[in-house]
């Protein structure tokens, strides 16, 4: 009988030491835990993240953002509103922007985007998206644009590695010539700690007028209970085609 109990204990030691390490004791093994340092008392989701700390909202999100950009003597103030509806693996977002600068003012095109979420592995989210830019921008030759995107999030300890590419097909015309299709990509890393997140990313964009933009982007976000969050961003142009600096402040809520 003693030998039987010793065998059971040995099997349990092997199981928990090799296959089910769970350092924060939240019921999710380290190999699947996207938030490996959650407090013992927190209620967690299937990825080991506190319910108040979910990285993907359950049903709904909206945010408002004020942006200020400057480049030499040129400046622009922009006011952005975005609403996203989440349904299981699907999400639908609508984003609008009003701008005013020292040359003109008006609404930019209204963006409507649809995405589908894949999980190639428990630690990897992959979003495939398609959308349109409705020609609200009031200028001659402005037409509907069609966009496609691929976004990747990989979770490692308290970090999220993010990357993505996008392509926009356009029929916009300027002075009787059709503009170029635009495309770009980005790569960065985001760190989560004590209700805050800090992101640092590099962005590349080739625009409709064939300009090439290199941009360094930084974002800090503070999350509160109930889903409300505040954020600020700083973007720095790294070459002559890119606007010199962009600053923004925003507030939003996730449900």
Summarize the structure.
By secondary structure, the protein is mainly beta. The protein is built from one helix and 15 strands.
Note down, in words, how this protein is organized.
The protein has 255 residues and is mostly beta strands. It has two domains: 2-52, no CATH class; 56-254, Beta Barrel (Porin). The protein is built from one helix and 15 strands. It has one helix at residues 2-18, and strands spanning 60-71, 74-87, 90-101, 105-107, 110-121, 124-134, 145-156, 159-169, 173-174, 177-178, 182-193, 196-206, 212-223, 228-237, 245-254. The strands form two sheets. It has a twelve-stranded antiparallel beta barrel with strand order 1-2-3-5-6-7-8-11-12-13-14-15. Strands 9-10 form a two-stranded antiparallel ribbon. Strand 1 and strand 2 (74-87) form a beta hairpin. The longest helix has 17 residues, at 2-18. The radius of gyration is 23 Å and the shape is elongated.
- Tell the overall outline: elongated
How many helices? Answer: 1
* CATH superfamily heading of the largest domain: monomeric porin ompg
Estimated structural class = mainly beta
Number of domains: 2
Mean pLDDT: 85
Compute the CA-based radius of gyration. 23 Å
Largest sheet: 12 strands, antiparallel, barrel
Helix content: under 10%
Topology at a glance:
Layout: H1 2-18, E1 60-71, E2 74-87, E3 90-101, E4 105-107, E5 110-121, E6 124-134, E7 145-156, E8 159-169, E9 173-174, E10 177-178, E11 182-193, E12 196-206, E13 212-223, E14 228-237, E15 245-254
Antiparallel strand pairs: 1-2, 1-15, 2-3, 3-4, 3-5, 5-6, 6-7, 7-8, 8-11, 9-10, 11-12, 12-13, 13-14, 14-15
């Amino acid at each position: 009988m003693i030998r039987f109990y010793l065998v059971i204990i040995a099997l349990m030691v092997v199981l928990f030491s090799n296959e089910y390490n769970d350092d924060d004791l939240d019921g999710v093994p380290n190999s699947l835990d996207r938030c490996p340092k959650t407090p013992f008392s927190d209620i967690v989701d299937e990825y080991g993240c506190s319910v108040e700390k979910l990285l993907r909202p359950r049903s709904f999100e909206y945010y408002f953002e004020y942006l200020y950009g400057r480049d030499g003597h040129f400046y622009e103030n922009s006011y952005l509103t975005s609403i996203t509806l989440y349904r299981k693996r699907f999400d639908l977002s609508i984003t609008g922007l009003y701008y005013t600068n020292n040359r003109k003012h008006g609404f930019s095109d209204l963006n409507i985007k649809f995405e589908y979420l894949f999980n190639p592995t428990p630690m990897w989210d992959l979003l495939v998206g398609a959308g349109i830019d409705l020609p609200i921008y009031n200028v001659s030759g402005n037409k509907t644009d069609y966009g496609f995107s691929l976004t990747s999030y990989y979770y490692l300890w308290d970090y999220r590695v993010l990357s993505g590419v996008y392509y926009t097909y356009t029929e916009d015309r300027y002075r009787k010539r059709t503009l170029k299709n635009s495309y770009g990509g980005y790569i960065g890393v985001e760190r989560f700690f004590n209700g805050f997140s800090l992101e640092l990313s590099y962005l590349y964009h080739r625009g409709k007028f064939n300009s090439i933009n290199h941009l360094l982007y930084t974002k800090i976000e503070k999350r509160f209970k109930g889903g409300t969050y505040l954020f600020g961003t700083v973007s720095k142009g790294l070459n002559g085609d890119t606007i010199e600096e962009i600053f923004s402040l925003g507030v939003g809520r996730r449900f």
